[in-house]
Amino acid sequence: MSQQATGSIPIEVRFADLDAYGHVNNAVYFTYLETARTRLFIDRFLALKGRGLLLLVARAECDYQNPIALNDRVIADVEIERVGRSSFDLAYTLHDGEGKTYATARTVMVCFDTGLGRTVEVPGELVKREG
Amino acid sequence: MSQQATGSIPIEVRFADLDAYGHVNNAVYFTYLETARTRLFIDRFLALKGRGLLLLVARAECDYQNPIALNDRVIADVEIERVGRSSFDLAYTLHDGEGKTYATARTVMVCFDTGLGRTVEVPGELVKREG
Amino acid sequence: MSQQATGSIPIEVRFADLDAYGHVNNAVYFTYLETARTRLFIDRFLALKGRGLLLLVARAECDYQNPIALNDRVIADVEIERVGRSSFDLAYTLHDGEGKTYATARTVMVCFDTGLGRTVEVPGELVKREG
Amino acid sequence: MSQQATGSIPIEVRFADLDAYGHVNNAVYFTYLETARTRLFIDRFLALKGRGLLLLVARAECDYQNPIALNDRVIADVEIERVGRSSFDLAYTLHDGEGKTYATARTVMVCFDTGLGRTVEVPGELVKREG
Q1: Does A35 contact chain D (CB < 8 Å)?
Q2: Nearest residue of chain B to residue D27 (CA atoms)
Q3: Chain C residue with minimal CA distance to A26?
Q4: Strand, helix or coil at C33?
Q5: Are A53 and A109 in contact (CB under 8 A)?
Q6: What average pLDDT does range A18-24 have in this prediction?
Q7: Which of A48, C25, C59, C126 has its CB 3.0 to 4.6 Å from that of C108, i.e. a possible disulfide?
Q8: In whole angstroms, what is the distance from residue D24 CA to residue D69 CA?
């Protein structure tokens, strides 16, 4: 599987990410996942978009383990975990780089063809299927 | 199980909820879930907060079925699905009120005692355990 | 000046709008302004967008007078205050409908032609110039 | 005036910052300003908060000059421009570090004493008054 498809992305916590509880809001964790995968895939995203292909989230899930405060260091590890014909899974770990995990998460991604108006097979140049 | 714990909450789509793809961003769906449960539980949230209890999301998951556009009507149905000793599940359906489902979702909620610094048993007045 | 161009729009406060201070975040006030003008102008927005015209904010300003809490009722009054050749001003008041003002604000709007790649004269059907 | 009170803060553009027009949403510029001043003042913010003092925005304004795209480099220059008895002004420039200005902005900041329930004189250790 393509090594370039995995990576560690530093995430900048903003004051606006905190909610009234004083920690990063639960929905913002999904923004962090998106920020990480966008950074990681950006060149391929743009190439696909030029061909009318959008990379959409079909399913997202997150297990919250530790709250994130304003000054916390946050790193998002992203890894391709499964590549199917019409979808692939990204697995994420949000952590502080020193052994503390904030959350583990997963998104199922699909490729949507804006011309055809439906999801299509995942292009081989985006993620490589095994075997 | 308490009937008052379920409900249908209209959600107002904002222009800012849309992302560059022109539809409501995937992370914003979780904000919609939060908005719905906050409306539904607001009195109990505030009563709990006065006693130092925060209602936190331990896990969140969402299956995306249809994109939401700016002018779409969005209703969030919320239902308590499981009540355990230390957590309970909320099940959500985001729909248009006319048979179209945007997403189904679930959050596992826990009660955190800010005084004790740890999660505690779910208070009976928040959700009623069966049997 | 066109009467249809002014209006009062109810705004739904979301838990996610609050920041760590427990009140609606200062940047979110601008989202409220946008939500209000989008509602008000939606038909004309879409008609313009179909012709490749985007309505952009050239300047925004807000005077904060009172904090907004989760359960506060918020109404956005919007009014066209000035119509020039290449821009027009919208004036806003965020209030509770009972005499309490949260903020007064103003945005200078311009029309951007995506085909020409530059701002153009404000179309007469969007806002009517006087005299 | 204190040199430490000014600075240049790199801002990370997130996919979620973009709106349906494909550029950073106008309200998000104010989040960028907040992110920059929070970074710059963080130690003093926390020291003040420990004493029950909140730093609030009394007024905010922004002149938009160029759109910001996902891959654009964004730097926020922050400078204290005026220090009065009960408020002070921060001036900002959002730019790309190579001569292109995205926006210039200003916020009027006040100090709110949560114990007294009102704004108070700006503490000398936050910003130094001249003369």
Answers
A1: yes
A2: B16
A3: C16
A4: helix
A5: no
A6: 93
A7: C59
A8: 6
Residue A130 has pLDDT above 90, yes or no: no
- Cβ contacts (< 8 Å) between D20 and chain A: which residues? none
Q: How many pairs of residues across C and D have Cβ atoms under 8 Å apart? A: 55
Question: pLDDT for D75-106, tens place per residue?
Answer: 999 999 998 888 999 999 999 999 999 999 99
User: In this complex, do B38 and C15 lie within 8 Å of one another by their Cβ atoms?
Assistant: yes
Residue C109 domain boundaries: 3-120
Are C31 and B16 in contact (CB < 8 Å)?
yes
Instruction: State the ipTM, two decimals.
Output: 0.90
Q: Where are the alpha helices (DSSP H) in chain C?
A: 26-50
Asked, for residue A99, whether it belongs to a domain, the answer is yes
Residue for token pair 């204190």: D2
Report CA B48 to chain centroid distance, whole Å.
17
Rounded to 5, what percent of chain C is helix, strand, coil? 25, 40, 35
- Residues of A with Cβ-Cβ distance to B58 under 8 angstroms: 63-64
Mean pLDDT value of segment A39-47: 78
* Residue B27 contacts D, CB cutoff 8 Å: yes
What would the pLDDT profile of D18-43 be if each residue is shown by its tens digit?
999 899 999 999 999 999 999 988 77
Cα–Cα dist C23/A18, whole Å: 11
Q: Look at residue C100 and tell me if it is in a domain.
A: yes
Residue B130 lies in a domain: no
Characterize the bridge pairing of strands A7-11 and C53-64.
unpaired
∠ CA C49-C54-C56, nearest 5°, is 150
pTM of the model: 0.93
Asked whether residue B129 is domain-assigned, the answer is no
pLDDT in tens, C33-90: 999 999 988 777 777 878 888 889 999 999 999 999 999 999 999 999 998 888 999 9
- Residue C91, domain CATH: 3.10.129.10
